[in-house]
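Deliverable D5.2: sample structural annotation.
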Amino acid sequence: MGGPAAFGRLIGAGWMLMRNDALMPRELQSLYPPAARTAASLLHLFAGRQARVGRPGERLARSLERLGPVAIKLGQLLSTRADIIGAEFAEDLSRLKDRLAPFPDETARREVEAALGRPVESLFAQFGGAVAGASLAQAHAAVMTDGRHVAVKVLRPQIGRRVAADAEVLRLAARWVERLAPAARRLEPVAFAETVIRATELELDLRLEAAGADELGEIMAKDGYMVAPKVIWDAVGKRVLTTEWAQGQPLSDPAALEQPGLDRRAAADNLIRAFLAQALDHGVFHADLHEGNLFLSAPARIIAVDFGIIGRLGAAERRYLAEILWGFLERDYVRVARVHFEAGYVPAHHSVEAFAQALRAVGEPLFGRAASEVSMGRVLTQLFEITAIYDMRLRPELVLLQKTMMTVEGVARRICPDHDIWAAADPVVRRWILRELSPQAQVRRFAGEAAEALRAIARLAKAPPATAPEPPAPKGLGGLAWFAIGAFTSGAAFVLAAWLT
């Protein structure tokens, strides 16, 4: 169950969290159930002097920063959910978004020259100090020789080795959870860990991020809800990425929400609609939309940076997502339930009507209430209980979608505490439904499928006779069809948890 080095690092991580009193902080002891209070008291015996320095969130942030990139990303996600972990705790974790300790400027210059194969001065008239530091890289302000103001992203030295070591620890922890906590198996911890690891590994090649930024920039321009700085391809390498300077103020800075002329509700609407338009209309979305990667300018302009993590959805996933959201917008819980069963989201031995009743119990109390009046923690607890009752399992291929939904909804709440997420989602979801599920769209889809079937028959007619007997045709739907139908099998609660406010 993992090599000695990974085992040692995992034990070391637990020890650090205990020494910092960051696992079950003493300040929260009164909130724990009786059994947990006993465990917390035992853990507090191992706390060191550092456990008395700072608030619980500050101690956790220090611990996660020392534990490495994967742990930092977990902290970034938590920091967007002040409605779940509390405003003070979220604020203490917010430094993990873009205020980590930078590495020296001289090291950054050497990295740029090695990656681009030319002196810094040949590209940049000015190359300033670090303006933001994240888990994998840091950003520098610079001016090109042609006068353009740009941001230069440079990977941290030796970050590949650190990510590889973190990946082994995460794999080991996931296997332990799967073996020792049977109730957690439906969350597919091993597959979840592999999804997170794969996404992080892809972030280590900034040429891929440049391509993602370019692709999503074109997509964003079609709707106008969000924009992306243009990529400067002449200054892109495996470990260096250069883009035009992002206008506006970083959303991680509280002053961004105090700009004159800012329309908070419109900005929150634009964030929600940008994400939905990307996911539903195009099947590709920015999957790391925390405040450290967003800039804001009045009245409601959202600028996104850091395209290291890109999510993609197939046609089946997009349709199921749209129909689920549409059903909730219309408060048609039976329709939502049927979509879940049709997709294989809920095992067939359960009752559609009973599942619709469970969804109604979650959804109805939320309509017509301001986001500030809704306890997201309570909603998540109720949804988690429902997923257990109806044997719903996490779908690893949807982890990025679910994680991004949680993050986007949390950021929108911070921009506008009374934001109505359903009203924001309505025009994008309605547009998709009218375009893709109208009678005309159904006729076009049928015609396309018929044309493809005719082409397949023509190819078979031209193919030479087989030299060996063909294997028997599988009964029922083929593997690809089952994959498409089952694409949304288990993530429903996690999707709904992010949007039922």
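Annotation notes: The chain has a mean pLDDT of 82. Residues 439-462 form the longest helix (24 residues).
The annotation will be released with the project's public dataset once the embargo ends.
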